[in-house]
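--- STAGE predict ---
source: upstream dedup step, 1 unique chain passed
mode: sequence only
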Amino acid sequence: MSPCPVLKKKKIFINIIFSLNFLLLDQYDNMTDQPPRQCFLPRCRLCRFLIFEGESVKAITQHGIISTEFFYNDHMNSVDITPKLNPYRCTNSMCHHRDRLIGCHSACLSFVSPVSLSWLQVTDYSFEPAEPEDERRLVHFVKVVATKLTATYNMLPLELWRMISSSLAHEFAASATYQTCATDHAPNTYSIDTTLSIWARFVRLDGIQYIGGLSNTRQNDEDICIFNADKGFPLEALYVSEDHLGIRWIISTKQGSSTDLPATNDDLTMWWQTIHPASSRFLTVEYDGFKLRHIFASDTPKPLQLNLWSTPMPPLALKSLHFHSLTSSIPPINESARLTKFRMASFECNNKAITGLSGCWASHMLYFHAHVKDDNSFYRRMDLRKSDAIWIYVPLDRDESIATVWWRMGQLPPHCALVVKTDKNRLVEMGPHTRRSWPSPTWSRMFATSGRPARIYWEYSHHGSKQWATSSPPDQTTIPSVSTISQYPPGSDGLFYSSASLENIVEIIPCQRKHICSTDLQITGLLIHYKDKTRACVGGFRMDSLCPAIRVGDSSKLYLGFTYADGKYPCLVKVEASPPEDEGPYQWLNFSWEGRMEWWHDRVRCQISCAGKCSPKVD
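--- STAGE serialize ---
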């Protein structure tokens, strides 16, 4: 059935308003005599650490003009600075299609003189780094500064010097950046001949090695040959490894020969580009004055968008992939000369070693993980980015695998969701459950199993995943249906839904996390084990926050104790398989071991029901 004309008109109207958002902001600025808004990324270009609310900062324009001092906050409108600027906090990728300001701590600028736009390009991030990078750099600088202070002033223990160094880390990092990057070498672009041998020169920045330049001749004894020309075996492909600051390594392969390529980069610190110079003899190399930034085949125009991969991708593997968009097709208002890089992480599916799949949601899908071993470090990495995100866990039993994956495209990001179906007919919705009042969504099947092990690629971004790549072409002919027994709680929006049978349960493992609105702990979800060795999961669940297992034994009922976080959000805090000895200040609800338990929830509240009984209502 086609959508009604009213919904069609509403959809068009919403898309127009969304696409014109920044244009309307500019028009408002003009009406109020404000200068055009300019993107202000809250990261100091000198020390390269994040800028936090209340810190003293200065802005540098694209013409090299340094503003007067002001105090940063997350909701900047207009600040009283000279020159008159209108900094606007960068919150999503669209900000990068506008004029950008360079942000710096005022204290860091006092350690650096003069400031040049040329060498500031060296510390321009192509994308946000992996979550542990700031911590790694802080540890690096504290160690370096403490060691130097100990060697110079041997009057205090090393531990005390480390404490002192931690307060000087930002200033030392800014000074080190200036001493390392402020060279006489200007950014430039040059060509490399792929029919000749290729040599690489290396430099180091903050303890990390980068490629400082490429040449067809060896310039000094420290240069390394990354491609040894052989007329019988011409260059087949280059695999270029880079991070947020530039190119770190290059692997070359020759036609007719085999080369071992690195495995998947699980910590997502390095990304790979595949260059297949089939019809081009030359490569175009972009140099930022200290290290290499970009490489591409000279026979093609410089791309505006580029896919990077968590593992080297052979040209044939890339040709077999189908890309799936997770956003609307509305293009940005203004094209940007800045190269946009999509980082494509991946997880394996249909591997018998996989025990489950986890997805992270915070208004968008942020992260995916296939559980193969007891490694929960990815939770900590994501907590550094979004500690209050919702995690959905899909248990996979023995001989169970992913059969189909759909994407539900709504009019707004909170209306979107991922739906996963296994070959055991398990159907899990990883995202908010759709409401009847929402405009009709668009469905697309992004993956259908071929019965063989496969890998699903997804964009890793602080602003949510915008595309997937799989071996399956898009298909809109099949639509899944996640049915509910109870009605969508009235007065609520964007709730997640899950359900599980209460029959033949052996044990229950609660997931316990601190409530985001109080210091109290809450039970966010349950992992249920059944007599037939199968499992189910309800609510939000993380494998790093498990409580001791609750054995059911000869219990006749399940007892759930509820309270109100911050005095207004109903949440589960107690789970028992026997009557509570002390009911305490909680509201108790009990279910017999039969029927199906339903669980509605978001970040702050939950509502659980079964067989007509219901916990405190979500308003």
